Amino acid sequence: MRLQRTLKQEVGFEGIGLHTGQYSKVCLKPAPRDTGIIFRKPDHSGDKRITIKPSVNSVIDTAFSTTIGYNGAKIRTVEHILATLSGLGIDNVIIDVIGQEIPILDGSSIELTNIILQSGIAKQGQKKPYLRILKPVIFTDRNSEIAVFPFNGRRISYRIYFNHQLLGEQNLSLDITEETFIKEIAPARTFGFLKDVEYLRANGYAKGGSFENAIILGKDGILNSTGLRFKDEFVRHKILDLIGDLSLIGLPIYGHIIASKAGHSTNIKFLKKLLYHQDCWEIVSEASQHCYAYT
Question: Which residues have C-beta within 8 Å of that of residue 276, sequence separation ≥ 6?
Fold first, then answer.
């Protein structure tokens, strides 16, 4: 069991949101141990800040991204920043957001990952509890499925399938560590299909999408001049999204998660089922030398 961690100093980034196309600014600040991850944004008057604690219960929308909200305030597309914090093992941070959506940057988590690594990560004098899987939990949602099995560590196996000559089926299985996240997952960019762009924008999505922040697939292949960062970059990005969504449970999950053709909606539904089946897991706290129930 590792020590809790936070940032050594404030870091910030800014840019347009993938779906809103609007400019936003984000500042991540160190926080005391046991704080957790907290988002803050100005209220309508601009005089006060509304606090949003990312959790399964704070998710208000899962269409093409994960949106969290509280008391009328919402923040869109939180999955990449949450994945970065989870992948780097950062437990306590306050995130101030000015805008409606987390900036998409280059469509992956590598820019934010590098910003955080360059500024430094600080260990804190308190152990981090984790959720240990005791028995399998399986969730099926039409053609999508997520399951978790007991495993001594954190592992994700993912399968995607698209009816496209370039994608087809991709599979990847990885132990999730800080090193594998940085090298294998963080650089993987979001992707979309040219044929869907008009529909998405007409319905309020992908207004900020471009070749600079997404892989765009045409009928015959990738339209980006820069090509792919990995041959299987698509399934790697789906793992990135899943890591971000899984972090909404509030604790690292020690188990083997197997996902097939899942998305944000399926991810959240799976977490709700997992929390419901309390006999299938326990929360381990070395500090107290015992396990206790989730509240």
Answer: none
